[in-house]
Amino acid sequence: EDKVVQSPLSLVVHEGDTVTLNCSYEVTNFRSLLWYKQEKKAPTFLFMLTSSGIEKKSGRLSSILDKKELSSILNITATQTGDSAIYLCAVGTINSGGSNYKLTFGKGTLLTVNP
Amino acid sequence: DTEVTQTPKHLVMGMTNKKSLKCEQHMGHRAMYWYKQKAKKPPELMFVYSYEKLSINESVPSRFSPECPNSSLLNLHLHALQPEDSALYLCASSQELAANTGELFFGEGSRLTVL
Predict the structure, then answer these.
(1) Residue A93 confidence (pLDDT)
(2) Residue A46 neighbours by CB under 8 Å, 6+ apart
(3) Between B4, B55, B103, which is nearest A34 by CB?
(4) In chain B, which residues have their Cβ closer than 8 Å to the Cβ of A105?
């Protein structure tokens, strides 16, 4: 069974702090790793990673994949109260026939940024 | 704004009712998904449609019946649900399944309460 584990499960920081969120996985037929941010409703896409060692960056957020360690990190620098959300890691896998792709989600990290 | 539209946003139903959740996307995506998300839990995959055919059914009880009338629409028919089925039901789409390393685009969800 595919497994995606995120840590920590929750984190409370002050505005301006830098945070690192972790995601590790044990899956069959890995294709991609995605990070989503979920506030009150639908998850919104942050990054998709397919290659090891290549950092993806968007403003204060960045992420990198380590296929050897089967893990990824999401960094947020200079945190703001608007960064408060659940951050979900999801791993995309494809079946052996190559016909079915699906995302398996981790439990998420609840980030609270206090002013 | 999400390009995946779900209706209704909220639904309250009794255990004997029959209702439907609807999802629509106009991005030309050929794969569509239903996820179920309970409070403080990650989304769990229910069904995947590829080119309007059911591709994955994650052992979902028959009281949930998906339907894909065309490539833009995805329905979830609900009948004889239980209170424990109360959850946020998320619809998502992606370009294609096979060889897909792409992201899923999520709708805002339909929050279902079963009395």
Answers:
(1) 87
(2) A34, A35, A36, A37, A58, A61, A63, A74, A87
(3) B103
(4) 42-44
